Amino acid sequence: MSSQTRSGSADAATASGSIVLEATDVQVSYGKVTALRGVDLELGEGELVSLIGPNGAGKTTFCDTVNGFLPFGGSVQYRGMEVGSTSRDELVDRGMIYCTEERDLFGFMDVEDNLRLGAYAIDDEDYVDQQLEFVYDLFPRLEERTEQNARSMSGGEQQMLAIGRALMGDPDLLVLDEPTIGLAPVILEDISQAIDPIQEQGVSILLTEQNVTFALDHADRMYLLENGEVVKTGTPEQLRGDDYIRETYLGG
Ligand SMILES: Nc1ncnc2c1ncn2[C@@H]1O[C@H](COP(=O)(O)OP(=O)(O)OP(=O)(O)O)[C@@H](O)[C@H]1O
Fold first, then answer.
1. Is 3.40.50.300 the CATH classification of the domain at 11-93+208-252?
2. Which residue puts its alpha carbon closest to atom 24 of ligand 1?
3. Contact between residue 173 and residue 43 where contact means Cβ atoms under 8 Å apart
4. Is the CB of residue 114 less than 8 Å from the CB of residue 106?
5. Interface pTM (ipTM) of the complex?
6. 62 CA closest ligand 1 atom index
């Protein structure tokens, strides 16, 4: 999907189809607390890159940073645009869509209205209808609940709605911050099954996770963040074979 509803981008990175997101030496502090230290991360066209790490490692801070919500040191480039000097509206307009850990749903609005709000900036009504159908195919539980208020849904259903709403915004890069947190295994499976079809639509994905198994199952490449620093990177295959990852994050 993507680009169909968005004004054409002429920059080199888009034209060459290579780097979507490039973070270089990113530093973020909250007063005296340093949350990110010298983080480098690269995400290529169509890739799913996962940033894994324990509580407080800095995953949400990284998502907030690349989405232009925090002041930072270093450089973050999205499609060749420097995030620090690009407005949030422009980032969203160019397809950087953020599904936050808090989900940010409109609790007193129903499922379909929440979904349609995700497409507020898109004029192409055919696209919106088509994408709504895609989201309902992806999450049939949402289609069964089109008129149910978001606040009355289970945590898992709300997570599906949050992802669905992000998809309605025609993402080029979808940033998913800990989508599996607190979910029962059966719901986790529903979320898991949605990942491949989203990638098949041509969407690049940055996924943060504490659930290392989930990340290993879906990522093309991974970065392990601890105390604000990237301490390991590699493919899932490489990280599965890593003693430290196995002992610390996969229970030996
Ligand atoms: N608004 C804030 N003010 C002060 N410190 C903050 C703020 N937000 C985050 N921090 C601190 O920055 C560090 C990184 O937090 P962050 O939420 O980015 O980690 P995380 O990996 O997303 O954790 P979790 O998995 O628990 O959500 C933590 O020490 C946290 O207390």
1. yes
2. 55
3. yes
4. yes
5. 0.97
6. 18
